[in-house]
Design a protein that fits this description.
By secondary structure, the chain is an alpha/beta fold. The protein contains 4 helices and 5 strands; from the N terminus they run ββαβαββαα. The protein is globular.
């Protein structure tokens, strides 16, 4: 199983929504997507609420992406990260992210933190069915 992803821009904030399972076989696709997005936006919200799960390698890839964005003076925020063994506290500890990422419970809260309305976040969530 692999992932699908979709990117949408909301003013100065980009949203990359990921669905599927973020495991070892999905890493080339994930890394390619985050690399592509890194060239297009300063602040990106990585919506992980559509993931069925992720492996240690998947979590490490997310941590690496946070670091890559930070190295370029950009921000990769996380929204809706899957729980590990039912423990929501992992959202603050993603395997040594360079520069602790901003973590939101879900996409709506992440967008609201940037002044983007719930109505627009609902539209984004409805579009999840059309992923790359």
């Amino acid at each position: 199983m692999t992932i699908q992803w979709r990117y949408e821009q909301f003013g100065a904030v980009g949203v990359m929504a990921v669905t599927g399972y973020l495991g070892a076989e999905a890493l080339p696709r994930f890394n390619g997507a985050t690399g592509w997005i890194l060239t297009r936006a300063t602040t990106v919200i990585l919506d992980l609420s559509g993931l069925h799960g992720w492996s240690d390698a998947g979590r490490e890839a997310v941590s690496a992406a946070v670091g890559q964005f930070a190295d370029q003076g950009r921000t990769l925020e996380l929204a809706g990260a899957p729980m590990i063994d039912g423990d929501a506290d992992h959202r603050q500890d993603l395997g040594g992210c360079i520069g602790a990422p901003v973590v939101h419970a879900d996409l709506a809260m992440a967008l609201e933190a940037h002044g983007i309305s719930r109505q627009r976040s609902t539209v984004m969530q409805q579009r999840r069915g059309v992923l790359l």
